[in-house]
Specification:
721 residues, 5-stranded parallel β-sheet, 5-stranded mixed β-sheet
């Protein structure tokens, strides 16, 4: 039974017997506190002092009856919500009931009292009162909890406001500091732009000053050559031709620098005029043809029947085409160079002319293409192409095309060639271009060239990505003939060769590689199943990788065989005689040296940067480029001068040639007289001295011939002279 000790019930009746009866009956069945009043006034006094939860009020009482008492109770704010149950004997008077409910009674009981009915009604009111109290207590508890939460949230909010104010203050300070930095950067940028403009103006002025005496040198060399021809002094003509050619070459370099300086200084002007494309094509073709034929290339022209005219700067367009064609001719050997001219109508209804120069030369990697148009930068620092020029040709071509409202685009694949496309509007308009900021000087880092031969395109792509991440330049071939062609063209540092290929399998390709004296020294790593590895080793493969583990083992194997690294055990043998090359290669490999073979000086130069030899064994009498011309090119490059050169020749040297070689080589061996043991001994000594920087001055001495005949001699010169 619920605890009702705190519930107070007030009984109001002027009849003592009724009070006693009600008191006794309620007390018997309910645990409540009972208060008694014998009149309305007494009841009101009790209500002012004591909290009452339920009132049982008789209607018929003297002085102040129940209705009047109930009205007063309802008028007081403190008591207006207390439930009132009217009690009267006049139960049949309907007006009493209506009047009682109108005043605010909650129930109406009649006399004589029905105990069960009375107790049931009062129990109901008690339960209601208890539930109401519990509800109010629950509400109070929730209000207190919510109040506590709100207080806590309010405290947190105040703290957050304080923190935000601190952050705002710090942010304002940071904004002030950034504004100061931006102002400083803006000032530094303006200073740099001013300095760059001054530099460009200086270079432009200097280029003009240099061209004046240089033109005189070129003119006088032509006059002297003509006089020498008239006087039949033929011994002077070659030297005068060299002076003239060197002057023209230097003039071209100065012109390139002048063009770039004008562009950067904003002084490059365009002369827009009607240009007959047919005449322009004829001039360009006749000019470039000797350079194309120099490397045994073939020039092909693809064009419409009628070329028509265009409004553009003829001089600059000619220079742009010659730049692209000369690059293609320079970096392609025994290949095809194609000049394609066509007309296009674009979506903006303007007519355009596109000049495409394509070659099947060595091509470029993606890294090389990214820095292709930077001034004074060559794109081939990690390939086997020979260096030359200033690195300005493509930069100037790109900026000329943009000035004429056009574009220059490049597509290239390493090992397969390049395609440059100049697109110009048929009616050119001068376009102001933004001169590029000073480029970064970082160069492409490459550890050598790897050739991948595999018929599976996904395998080729995967190997190319993995090897590129390791720092190698990678060329790919899908079949044997293409792989052999690239091997001859690139002379890679290593070849990854798949065995299972259609038409020409890996074993046949390996056999052809090893039968070629120039390609035989290249390490070949076979990609094959484990059961075929012994066959690979027997046929001359450097190593074999199981197909299932190629990706995990590849880096370790390349490192194991020093593929593309800067180790000092590589000797370059430059000789046009196959028997001599193979003989020297066998001798050197028996001493655990790696060997790179070149059949003439030009091939050696093309591969010199990538191969990084510790020593060069050089023949003098060779086609294409002989040993003397090779040495001249070697001395023109600062980083190549320190490579020791040992001359091995059958040529009878005159005093002038001997003196020249003494300046630029470390040792000279006569082919008919050298002794293998002494040759090896001096090779070891030269490489050791070169690495430690202890090469000494000229020394001369003789030694016995391997055949017991003619003596040989050695001349040692200081390193790099």
């Amino acid at each position: 039974m619920p605890n009702t000790n705190s519930i107070n019930v007030l009984i109001v009746d002027d009849n003592k017997n009724n009070l006693f009866t009600l008191h006794t009956l309620i007390k018997e069945y309910l645990e409540v506190n009972i208060l008694e009043a014998n009149s309305g006034s007494a009841a009101l006094k009790i209500l002012t002092k004591t909290k009452v939860d339920l009132i049982i009020l008789d209607i018929q009482m003297p002085d102040m009856d129940g209705f009047e008492t109930a009205k007063v109770i309802r008028l007081r704010k403190k008591t207006q919500h207390i439930p009132i149950v009217f009690l009267t004997a006049a139960y049949k008077a309907e007006e009493f009931q209506q009047k009682g409910f109108a005043i605010g009674a909650v129930d109406y009981l009649t006399k004589p009292i029905d105990p069960p009915q009375l107790i049931s009604r009062i129990q109901s009111y008690v339960r209601f009162i208890e539930q109401d109290r519990q509800h109010k207590q629950e509400l109070e508890r929730k209000v207190q909890e919510r109040t506590a939460e709100l207080l806590k949230a309010n405290q947190l909010l105040k703290q957050e406001i304080v923190e935000r104010k601190q952050i705002e203050a710090a942010l304002k300070q940071e904004i002030i500091e950034r504004q100061q930095i931006e102002e400083a950067l803006k000032y530094a940028k303006e200073e740099a732009e001013t300095a760059n403009l001054a530099k460009s103006q200086f270079m432009a002025n200097m280029s003009h000053e240099l061209r004046t005496p240089l033109n005189a040198i070129i003119g006088y060399s032509e006059m002297l050559k003509e006089e020498a021809e008239d006087l039949e002094q033929d011994n002077y003509i070659p030297d005068l031709q060299k002076i003239h050619a060197a002057g023209k070459h230097l003039l071209g370099l100065i012109n390139d620098v002048l063009d770039l300086s004008k562009i950067e200084a904003g002084k490059m002007d365009l002369f827009i005029e009607p240009v007959d494309i047919e005449i322009l094509l004829s001039e360009v073709t006749s000019t470039i043809q000797p350079l194309v034929e120099k490397n045994a290339n073939r020039l092909e022209i693809e064009r419409p029947n009628v070329l028509g005219e265009m409004q553009t700067d003829m001089t600059k367009l000619r220079q742009m085409l010659l730049n692209l064609l000369s690059n293609a001719a320079k970096f392609t050997e025994k290949g095809i160079i194609c000049l394609d001219i066509n007309h296009q109508t674009r979506t903006d209804s303007d007519d355009w002319v596109t000049f495409c120069v394509a070659d099947d030369g060595i091509g470029m990697t993606e890294e090389q293409q990214q820095k292709l148009f930077r001034p004074f930068t060559q794109a081939d620092t990690s390939t086997t192409r020979r260096y030359g020029g200033t690195g300005l040709g493509l930069t100037i071509t790109k900026q000329f095309s943009e000035m004429m409202g056009g574009t220059l685009e490049v597509e290239s694949q390493f090992g397969f060639g390049s395609r440059f496309s100049i697109s110009l509007p048929l009616q050119a308009q001068v376009t102001q271009i933004d001169t590029p900021s000073k480029p970064e000087t970082s160069a492409l880092v490459g550890n050598g060239i790897i050739l991948v031969i595999d018929d599976d395109a996904s395998v080729r792509d995967l190997l190319k990505n993995n090897l590129s991440k390791l720092g190698y330049a990678v060329a790919c071939a899908a079949d044997g003939p293409e792989g052999l062609k690239l091997a001859n063209k690139l002379r890679p540092d290593a070849i990854l060769l798949d065995v299972q290929m259609p038409e020409m399998d890996g074993w046949r390709i390996l056999s052809m590689l090893k039968s070629d004296s120039l390609l035989a020294p290249i390490p070949v790593i076979m990609i094959t199943m484990e059961e075929d590895q012994q066959k690979g080793y027997a046929m001359g493969a450097t190593d074999c990788i199981d197909k299932t583990t190629v990706h995990s083992q590849l880096a370790a194997i390349l490192k194991k065989y020093h593929i593309g690294d800067n180790s000092t055990d590589l000797v370059m043998v430059v000789d046009d005689d196959k028997i001599t090359r193979e003989s020297l290669t066998g001798l050197l490999e028996s001493q655990n040296w790696r060997v790179f073979q070149a059949e003439n000086g030009q091939i050696a130069l093309e591969h010199l940067e990538n191969k990084k030899p510790a020593l060069i064994l050089l023949d003098l009498n060779m086609p294409v480029m002989d040993g003397f011309e090779f040495l001249a090119h070697l001395q023109q490059h600062e980083k190549w001068r320190s490579i020791p050169v040992m001359v091995l020749t059958a040529r009878k040297l005159n005093a002038e040639e001997q003196a020249h070689l003494n300046q630029h080589t470390e040792t000279i061996f006569k082919k008919e007289a050298y002794n293998q043991e002494e040759l090896i001994q001096h090779l070891h000594q030269l490489i050791t001295d070169s690495s430690t920087g202890t090469l000494v001055g000229v020394q001369s001495f003789s030694f016995g011939s391997a055949r017991g005949g003619a003596p040989g001699y050695i001349n040692l010169a200081p390193l790099g002279l």
